[in-house]
Amino acid sequence: MKSAFFGAAFGIAFAAGSANAATVTFTELTGVTGGSPAATGVFRADLSGLSIGDINSITIQDNSSPAAGSPGQFSGFDLDAVIVSSTLITDASQVASLVPIATLDFAGSILSPGAQTPPVDPALFGTTGGHVDLAVATLESFDGNSTTAIPGAFGFVSLGVGGKLGINLVSPLAVGPSEYLYTGEVGNNGEVAASTIDISSTPVASPEPSTWAMMAVGFATLGFMGWRGSRRATAHAA
């Protein structure tokens, strides 16, 4: 779980750029929700003022620091849920009342996994084979267990440092007078503020092979830098 803001050390881009997009601003609701332990912060963004026409995709990118928060599989933004609703709520305890007005294609979501802060695990939490594991992440529900214990952790996906998740809508949603985007941050300790969340009229698409190669180099470099920093810190402490 992270709290510090950090500019990503390398760029991650999806193959299809967004010609008409907006970065949304979130308001934190009072209280927390989630599974057990329940410590998910809920954030709301008003989409009704966006002048982008139809909404076709939501993109979330982590900008946290590799020196902050939990390491390994829990690195980066820990995303509990994403819901678009016309219902206005003000407290996290009210999330069960949200009725989605858009179907999000979580099964087809496009993950560009970020780097892990050492020690590195085989995969980021809530992912398998480089994709979101919906049996673990359950992104349609605010049910994240706010813990890094295994077993115990459940109901969210960790994006990794600099990681990026693109989610398309099954059908375009016209921007009207009452649309709100709700998202959940497991641990409620600053990751929404340290991330970029864009709403776009353009669907996201998978990166080209060359993009994946560039990402792999970036991840390896960031991991090595983190390892070196850890070695220096240990030597200094001794």
User: How would the global form be characterised?
Assistant: globular
In N-to-C order, the SSE pattern is EEEEEEEEHEEEEH
pLDDT under 50 segments (min length 5)? 1-18, 210-238
Structural class by sheet pairing and helices: alpha+beta
Count of folded domains? 1
Which descriptors apply to this entry?
12 strands; five-stranded antiparallel sheet; single chain; disordered C terminus; 238 residues; alpha+beta
Question: What this model shows, in words?
Answer:
The chain has two helices and twelve strands; from the N terminus they run ββββββββαββββα. The protein has 238 residues and is of the alpha+beta class. It has one domain. The strands form three sheets. The protein has a five-stranded antiparallel beta sheet, with no helix packed on it. The protein has a five-stranded antiparallel beta sheet with strand order 2-3-11-5-9, with no helix packed on it. The chain has a two-stranded antiparallel ribbon with strand order 7-8. It is globular and about 45 Å long. The two termini are 27 Å apart.
